[in-house]
Amino acid sequence: MSNDTVARSGPLDGITVVSLEQAVAAPFATRQLADLGARVIKIERPGAGDFARGYDHSVKGLASYFVWLNRSKESLSLDVKSAAGQEVLAALVARADVFVQNLAPGSAARLGLGTHELRARHPRLVSCDISGYGSDGPYRDRKAYDLMIQCETGLLAVTGTPDEPAKAGISVADIAAGTYAFAGIQTALLQRFRTGEGTTVAVSLFDALTEWMAQPLYYAMYTGTPPARSGAAHATIAPYGAFRAADGLVQLAIQNEREWNRFCAQVLDRPQLTEDPRFATNADRVAYRTELVAEIEEVFAPLPVPQVLRRLERAGIVSGRMNDVADVLEHPQLAGTGRWREVATPAGPVRALDPPARIGGVRPVMGAVPAVGEHTDAILAELGYGTARIAALHESGVV
User: Fold this and answer.
1) What is the CA radius of gyration of the chain?
2) Is 45 helix (H, G, I), strand (E, B) or coil?
3) How far is it, in rounded angstroms, from Cα 115 to Cα 379?
4) How far is CA 166 from the centre of its chain?
5) What average pLDDT does this structure show over 323-347?
6) Ordered DSSP codes for 342-386
7) Per-residue pLDDT tens digits for 121-172
8) Active site residue ranges
9) Does the bond joining 239 to the residue before it have cis omega, within 30 degrees of 0?
10) Cα separations (Å) of 228 from 117, 150, 193, 276, 296?
11) Cβ-based neighbours of 248, under 8 Å, separated by 6 or more
């Protein structure tokens, strides 16, 4: 399928993705494909579109989630439950290389878009299903949102303070699932290049986040004690976290005994701490964390943050400032590496970050964020629909 409305080039140029997507996980996967040159046709409900468009109105009247997740895509408004809509969707999938969906459990199958049906009709198609819990197991029919998965996978049990759990401040389960879907789709396309056959990629939010929870799971499995919630500190490494200086917090991390020795001698000016049996090993330092923090903050208390950071840098100790979101917007590393770009939206240009994976010779597409149904008529015309028939679909509310 060709498209003149979005200028694109990149490693995935020539790959067409049809995505029946909503919210975060699937749009995150497909936006990354679009960044690399794939043509992504996003199917949206006529009128309101993806419900993520209504999450907020913070970006010139547009939703921050939607602007983040949907650049470089084409929007086709389509009532996929109608017979005429299903005809359009079937024609699109027949021409596609990849089909992605993250509908509620069972919805895709009821639309005739189940994995087995698609694979039977289109052997070269890469089909990707993103769900809350997967297609089998006792939770397979459960709907799932990000916070529920954070709870079910134990993330809240290790995040927060000793007194109160806290969710991650970003949609970490959705992002994890979208990342694995993105990688899985590319792997499946590579396999198709070698074998000529498509395949199915299945990713669940639950599986993605339990993978990210592997270290706490191992720790609990083999010690019998789960890692404690430790606020901004690391649960199983010390010193590692935030420490008070005279005018703010300093983040630092010690990963091995060489760093611990340098830290005591050059930063704290207390080399004798390396001989203290309470702090002899990382496990000891974790056990006596309260006493360790007291020793460190006694030294830091009269010193301003910049002075502490200079000491840490001279000693080769990893450290950082406790930035807020406004600080990150103006972070010198983002400015110095040129990661800020500009993308078009229906409300005008907005800033956007280049994708984090930098591939030699590849410039990410960074195309516009579409309005609901912006490309509907052009896509229908590609499929052979004439002007009168397109007008009839609009009149009936199918598109």
Assistant:
1) 25
2) coil
3) 24
4) 19
5) 92
6) EE--TT--EEEEPPS---TT------PPPPTTTTHHHHHHHTT--
7) 999 999 999 999 998 899 998 988 999 999 999 999 999 988 899 899 999 9
8) 234
9) yes
10) 46, 16, 47, 24, 21
11) 305, 321, 322
Q: Where are the beta strands (DSSP E) in the chain?
A: 16-20, 39-44, 73-77, 98-101, 126-131, 200-204, 240-245, 248-253, 318-321, 340-343, 350-353
Give backbone dihedrals phi and psi of 257, rounded to 5 degrees, phi first. -70, -30
* CA–CA separation, 47 and 352 (whole Å): 26
Please determine, for residue 264, whether its predicted confidence score (pLDDT) is greater than 90: yes
Select from 124, 296, 151 the least CA-distant residue to 213.
Answer: 151
Residue type, 211: E
Which one-letter DSSP state was computed for residue 65? H
Number of Cβ within 10 Å of residue 225's Cβ equals: 8
Q: What's the rounded Cα separation, in Å, for the pair 257 and 119?
A: 55
- DSSP per residue over 179-212, as a string? HHHHHHHHHHHHHHHHHS---EEEEEHHHHHHHH
Provide the angle, in degrees to the nearest 10, between the axes of the packed helices 205-212 and 172-195: 100
Averaged pLDDT of the chain: 93
Share of the chain above pLDDT 90, in %: 83
Mean pLDDT over 312-321 rounds to 93
Cα–Cα distances in Å, from 371 out to 17, 67, 283, 295, 385? Answer: 18, 11, 54, 57, 21
